[in-house]
C-alpha cells in the first residue's frame, strides 16, 4: 500500500483494470492498493435480504420520484447535501411492514420487506 500526498491527483479515485484501487481520505490523503479479492466472501442471508430490499427500494424511488410534485415535496425535506432520492430511500428502508401516507396524492404506499409497491386510493 502506498500513501501519496500530491494536490494534483485529488480528482482520481476508483480502480484501474481491477488491479489497483485508488482511495481518498480526509486531509488530502490518497491510498493506492491492490484490488481486493472477494471470491471467497459469501454474503449472509441477512445481507442478501437487505441487498434485495435496497434494490427494490431503488426501483420504487426512481418510479415514485418521476412525478414532479412528489419530487418537489421530497426536495423540501432535503438537508444540505442531500438529494430527494436518498431521502425517500432512507424512509423506505426504515419502514418495514408499514403503510405510509402518500403526502401528495393522499394514497397509501405499502413497504413490506422485499415487496415495495404503490397503492393509491
What tags apply to this protein structure?
121 residues, alpha+beta, three-stranded antiparallel beta sheet, 3 helices, 7 strands
Word description of this protein:
The strands form two sheets. A four-stranded antiparallel beta sheet has the order 1-4-3-2, with no helix packed on it. A three-stranded antiparallel beta sheet has the order 5-6-7, with helices on one face. It is built from three helices and seven strands. It has helices spanning 45-64, 68-77, 84-94; strands at 2-4, 14-16, 20-25, 29-34, 98-101, 108-112, 115-119. It is flat and about 50 Å long. Strand 6 (108-112) and strand 7 form a beta hairpin. Helices cover 34% and strands 26% of the residues. Helix 1 crosses helix 3 and helix 2 (68-77) packs across helix 3. With 121 residues, it is an alpha+beta fold.
Tell how many strands the DSSP assignment holds.
Answer: 7
The averaged pLDDT comes out at 78
Residues in helices, as a percent range: 25-40%
Q: Specify the number of helices.
A: 3
Give a short overview.
This protein is of the alpha+beta class. The protein contains 3 helices and 7 strands.
Sequence-ordered SSE layout with sheet pairings:
Elements: E1 2-4, E2 14-16, E3 20-25, E4 29-34, H1 45-64, H2 68-77, H3 84-94, E5 98-101, E6 108-112, E7 115-119
Amino acid at each position: 500500500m502506498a500513501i501519496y500526498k500530491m494536490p494534483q491527483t485529488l480528482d482520481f479515485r476508483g480502480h484501474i483494470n481491477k488491479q489497483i484501487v485508488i482511495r481518498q481520505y480526509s486531509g488530502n490523503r490518497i491510498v493506492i492498493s491492490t484490488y481486493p479479492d472477494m471470491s471467497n466472501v459469501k454474503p449472509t442471508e441477512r445481507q442478501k435480504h437487505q441487498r434485495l430490499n435496497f434494490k427494490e427500494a431503488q426501483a420504487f424511488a426512481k418510479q415514485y420520484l418521476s412525478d414532479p410534485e412528489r419530487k418537489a415535496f421530497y426536495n423540501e425535506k432535503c438537508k444540505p447535501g442531500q438529494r430527494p432520492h436518498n431521502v425517500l430511500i432512507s424512509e423506505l428502508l426504515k419502514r418495514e411492514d408499514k403503510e405510509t401516507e402518500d403526502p401528495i396524492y393522499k394514497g397509501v404506499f405499502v413497504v413490506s420487506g422485499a415487496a415495495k409497491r404503490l397503492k393509491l386510493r
